[in-house]
């Protein structure tokens, strides 16, 4: 992958005026070129068109992650999504590094699906996710909680319950939000299971988690 060429393209299309509200939305954690998501996808498309025909270029990912501009991290994530068929359990340590560096909800919400895809194909990764679910790093815990999003009937409910229970009684917003999302998503497939989980663990669940989990359930959950 040609990192210098991609960087040059993003610099060429930078919009400093638009970058100001983008940086503010992310609480000034990152610099921005001012490239919106549709435009970024369009600019990256020629670079990623044939990417899946080659092995994963982790040097490219690393250089994108080291760049101060958030769009380069978004580009790296889009690249990894294109390369998911090539990712294996051996790549988990590299993905763990991405989760714990320049961490925020926007990158976490992509990395959880990438890790989840590996775990679905390689169930031995579940042991890693169980370890992450009790880690001091909240973003590893968040990825562990939400890595089964959109699995529907393929959801491992024993794993889901264990990981969520490892994180009940928290005051951390991003953890309680993730718990609610995980339960809300699975309630579309198995509302009875989610209702039963809430009935058994309601006393330990944050109001935010209950509110999110109960979105598609009966009003008594809220």
TrEMBL record:
Record Pfam families: DNA_alkylation
CDD domains: AlkD_like_1
SUPFAM superfamilies per UniProt: ARM repeat
PANTHER family recorded: ARMADILLO-TYPE FOLD, DNA ALKYLATION REPAIR PROTEIN
Full protein name: DNA alkylation repair enzyme
Organism for this UniProt entry: Neisseria bacilliformis ATCC BAA-1200
């Amino acid at each position: 992958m040609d990192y210098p060429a991609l960087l040059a393209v993003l610099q060429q299309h930078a919009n400093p005026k638009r970058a100001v509200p983008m940086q503010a939305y992310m609480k000034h954690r990152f610099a921005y070129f001012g490239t919106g998501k549709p435009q970024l996808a369009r600019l990256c498309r020629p670079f990623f068109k044939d990417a899946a025909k080659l092995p994963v270029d982790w040097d490219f990912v690393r250089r994108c992650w080291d760049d101060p501009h958030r769009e380069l991290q978004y580009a790296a994530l889009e690249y990894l999504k294109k390369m998911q068929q090539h990712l294996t359990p051996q790549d988990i340590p590299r993905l763990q590094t991405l989760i714990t560096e320049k961490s925020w909800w926007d990158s976490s919400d992509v990395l959880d699906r990438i890790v989840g895809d590996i775990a679905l194909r390689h169930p031995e990764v579940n042991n890693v996710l169980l370890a992450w679910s009790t880690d001091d790093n909240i973003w590893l815990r968040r990825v562990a909680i939400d890595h089964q999003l959109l699995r529907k009937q393929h959801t491992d409910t024993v794993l889901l319950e264990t990981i969520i229970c490892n994180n009940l009684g928290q005051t951390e917003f991003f953890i309680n939000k993730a718990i609610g999302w995980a339960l809300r998503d699975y309630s579309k497939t198995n509302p009875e299971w989610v209702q039963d989980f809430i009935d058994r663990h309601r006393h330990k669940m944050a109001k935010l988690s209950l509110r999110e989990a109960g979105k598609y359930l009966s009003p008594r959950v809220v």
